[in-house]
From TrEMBL:
CDD domains: SDR_c
Name of the protein this chain belongs to: 3-oxoacyl-[acyl-carrier protein] reductase
GO biological process, one term: bile acid metabolic process
InterPro entries found in the cross-reference section: NAD(P)-bd_dom_sf, Sc_DH/Rdtase_CS, SDR, SDR_fam
Keywords carried by this UniProt record: Lipid metabolism, Oxidoreductase, Steroid metabolism
Pfam families for this protein: adh_short_C2
Length: 222
């Protein structure tokens, strides 16, 4: 049975992905920090701002066949209002944690000469968003990491891909008016966490796809 590790798997996209992977035969582990999962899954408490805790989480599950770097935080502010603390927290969770979770998992995958890493970025990492400069920067960094790491790990038969979700119906977007958000999407609705999960499963089971950025955004950017 393949083992999958999903960061930030207690709610939203991470939860939907964990459930779908379980339904498809994966032994799934998730990390969580403040919010405990409300469904049956192997859960590891892990503060992703702490590199030692990330390494411990990866080591605790033994073999890693699939890593899904899902966890992320968002801050909506003008750049002149961004503090050093904002910068440190967002880059720690959205970039540094992705980098080191990938490193520690890749070490195991290289020994097995197989594996898959899937990074959850954002459409704002592709085109940028006003008042989300910091979020856009970190999500663009994930795209760059995906492309570089795909080249580096390909000789070890490890795929690295990225999903760039559009406006998804998760608690991160609860502060906005849903009807107004729908007007920004050509398909006329918000995406669901389950639709992102389907994209994760597709890439996880596609051994000849690597280094790609898959937009799941309802046509919000084309």
């Amino acid at each position: 049975m393949k083992k999958a590790l999903i960061t930030g798997g207690a709610t939203g996209i991470g939860k939907a992905t964990a459930i779908l992977l379980q339904q498809n035969g994966y032994d799934v582990y998730i990390t969580y920090n403040q919010t405990k999962p409300d469904y049956e899954v192997n859960a590891i408490k892990c503060n992703l701002e702490n590199i030692d805790e990330i390494e411990s989480a990866v080591e605790s599950i033994g073999r890693v066949d699939l890593l899904v770097n899902n966890a992320g935080v968002s801050i909506i502010k003008m750049i002149n209002d961004i503090t050093v603390e904002d910068y440190e927290k967002m880059t720690a969770v959205n970039e540094r944690a992705v980098y080191f979770a990938s490193k520690f998992s890749a070490l195991k995958m290289i020994r097995e000469q197989s594996g898959a890493i899937i990074n959850i970025s954002s459409m704002w990492g592709q085109v940028g968003a006003s008042c989300e400069t910091l979020y856009s920067m970190t999500k663009a960094g994930i795209i760059g990491l995906t492309k570089a790491l795909a080249k580096e790990l390909a000789p070890s038969n490890i795929t690295v891909n990225c999903i760039a979700p559009g406006i998804i119906d998760t608690r991160m977007n609860n502060m906005f008016d849903a009807e107004e958000l729908k007007e920004e999407v050509p398909l006329g609705r918000l995406g669901t966490p389950e639709e992102i999960a389907q994209a994760v499963l597709f890439l996880a089971e596609s051994p000849y796809i690597t280094g790609q950025i898959l937009g799941v955004n309802g046509g919000a950017i084309i």
